[in-house]
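Structure tokens please, single chain.
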Amino acid sequence: MHSKKKFPSANALFWCGLRHKVIYCLVALGLFFTGSGASLAKVVELRLSPQLVASAEYQPGKPDKPALILLHGFLQTREFPTIQRLAQGLSEQGYTTLIPTLSLGVPKRVQSLPCEAIHNHSFEKDVAELSRWETWLSERGHKNIVLIGHSFGSLQVLADAALPTSIAQKVIALSLVDTREVSKRSNVAVLQDATEKMRLGDKTLFRPPFAHCKEFPTTAANYVSYASWDRTRILRLVKTVKKPTEIIMGSNDNRMGADWPAKLRSEGASVRIIDGANHFFDDEHEFDLLDAVLTALK
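Here you go.
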């Protein structure tokens, strides 16, 4: 274990910890003082179609270390705190990092997509976009690529790694969830209705509840692409992925139930539990998460 220390401050703004001979300090405003690494990152773009451009934050690291793609959760962006904090810590350790914001059909998207927006994206399009970023890294000489996803992004990196065309060497899934437990509502009836709409070729918009959204305006096909990922299908996917996979979860993340780690392990998955951490690995557990990911990378 590495030591954690509270540094005295008149207004208690700072929380610091020692990790791998580097002192990290978290400010109440949410900033890290970890050297000049973050300032070296640049925004890069990827043209997906004549009208659609996606962007990512890219920071080169040491050539003898893997390049890491870090993917945010559902409807979020690369600015999501769990992903940003982890990426900064990994950059400080010399890893190349690429943090895309999935376009979700919005050119150069920079904000999380609100529930009430028209959702023209699908699970398959998201994974295809992730694959394009893998190719982008490969074209720049990065041959050892590791995929890291958080929450629903974990499911998408696993789905990418299961493709025969995937060039990723390893997968690290953080807080892996399905699309039913996030909403705390059964979606069986809505899913059956949407599947029938698909069969009939119905492409009109409907507004089912989904994930954290009370209404999720989209087509039946787009809805089914996400909502069909229940835990049974995820367990089959985990078993299908042949690349080394590490699943990291917090002991206080109860979204999938207490038996979820055991079910994942029953399919051959390597599961690491961070004691006391929640779904987002926030507060002091961000350092434990960095340690766990660094261990998985080794």
